[in-house]
Design brief:
By secondary structure, this protein is of the alpha+beta class. Helices cover 27% and strands 24% of the residues. It is built from 5 helices and 9 strands. The strands form 4 sheets. Strands 7-8-9 form a 3-stranded antiparallel β-sheet, with helices on one face. A two-stranded antiparallel ribbon has the order 1-2. A two-stranded antiparallel sheet has the order 3-4. The longest helix has 15 residues, at 133-147. The chain is elongated and about 60 Å long. It starts with 5 loop residues before the first helix and ends in a 15-residue tail after the last helix.
């Protein structure tokens, strides 16, 4: 746990713009979009430092997941400690280069069909091949909901809420 002076804490807080949802980091970002700060000659990711300041030490070997999918957010209510597997489950959309626009759905030109695919515990699971993109999307979402424990995008859309807007508040704050 970092032991910050009042001056260091004030410097950290001065780099945050609080909105009604996210707390935006307004200082240097990494190439991946995460906030960065150096304190006492130590490099910190801003979201990890925020978690430690507001919630407590990050358990050994765990990632800090942005529930809001905003990498520059440091709002402790939007951060949770997860395993790497759980963090990877909580993705907001398709990978770069995906032409379908749907996470886990790819065009198979040899079959002239959409392939629905989920990766779980390092295993690639083909859900099926579909003529209709919407059917492929529904099938892959259903499979993720079955297998994933930290998939807030599909859980929120299933509940009829717009993905990314649902932020469970912490009871310990």
């Amino acid at each position: 746990m970092p032991n910050l002076t009042e001056k260091q804490l004030a410097r950290f807080n001065s780099k945050i713009s609080k909105t009604s949802t996210c707390w935006e980091w307004n200082a240097p970002l990494s190439a991946m979009g995460y906030g960065r700060i150096t304190i006492n000659y130590r490099f910190w990711y801003a979201h990890r430092l925020s978690y430690e300041l507001h919630i407590g030490p990050i358990p050994e070997g765990l990632d800090i997941d942005h529930i809001c999918h905003n990498r520059s957010c440091v709002n402790p209510n939007h951060l949770r400690a997860t395993t790497r597997k759980q963090n990877l489950e909580n993705q907001s959309g398709p990978h770069r280069g995906n032409v379908s626009g749907v996470r886990g759905v790819y065009w198979r030109s040899d079959r002239k069909k959409w392939r629905a695919n989920v990766v779980h515990n390092g295993q690639s699971i083909t859900v099926g091949h579909f003529s209709n993109l919407q059917e492929a999307e529904e099938s892959v979402k259903k499979k993720r909901l079955e297998l994933f424990t930290h998939n807030t995008v599909d859980q929120d859309s299933r509940a009829g809420r717009r993905a990314g807007l649902f932020m469970p508040e912490r009871s310990d704050q």
